[in-house]
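Q: Can someone sanity-check these two? First one:
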Amino acid sequence: MADLDDFDRRILRVLQEDGRISNVDLAARVALSPSACLRRVQALERSGAIAGYRASVSPEARGVSFIAYVTVGLSRHTKDEQQSFERAIGQSPEVRECHNVTGSVEYLLRIEAADLASYKHFHTEVLGALPQVSTITSYIVMGSPKDERA
């Protein structure tokens, strides 16, 4: 990816706030001409700095009223065990994010479910049934006063 200058960083900041902004309005916000702004946006897309555009859909509209962050420890710390776990988790629609982390556990997951009963099923029948898993700790989201994920 190419080095980003101040204009590129400003473009990215504005697009993160409003991915539907018109090029004319974007150009005005970052103090560029519309043609220069469009060239920069296209270059950012080609370089991968802009990975894509998407709608941010509320959890309620997707039928989600239960969100948890879950830490997972594996019974063995081998590449094969990690890959097997990651493949299995990749097949679970409840898992919206999976991060391999450092510390006392190997993974941090963001789980979205319809309700507590649905989460319990996922916890017991999916996650708990994986042979690689040795520990599961759930952190239930009570509220999200700040969430900047798109």
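And here is the second, same format, sequence then tokens:
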Amino acid sequence: MKNLGQLMKQAQQMQAKMAELQERLAQTEINGIAGGGMVRVVLDGKGDMRKVTIDKNLLDPDEIEVLEDLIVAACADAKGKVEAYMQEEMAKVTGGLHLPPNFKMPF
């Protein structure tokens, strides 16, 4: 029974660390760029978009497809960085314990 109490204590500590991580992720800004920096997208650490910046030289109605592609590319760049950041931060919280993607604590 002593081990069960220790396990519950560790689970509670991990839950507190996870809550702290969620707060840090919400405050973190990660940039994605495309077109040599002509399109920039800012996502928070949870992957929610906060800002899009477009160089005025890209605002040509005849070249709208290029702009659309660059926005998608900048979002993909930022999303990849967010996922890498989240994995790094999760490894810190879990002490290197590899949990499956989208793992939810049961409490």
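A (reply): Looked at the second one. The longest helix spans residues 64-94. Strands lie at 29-34, 39-44, 49-54.
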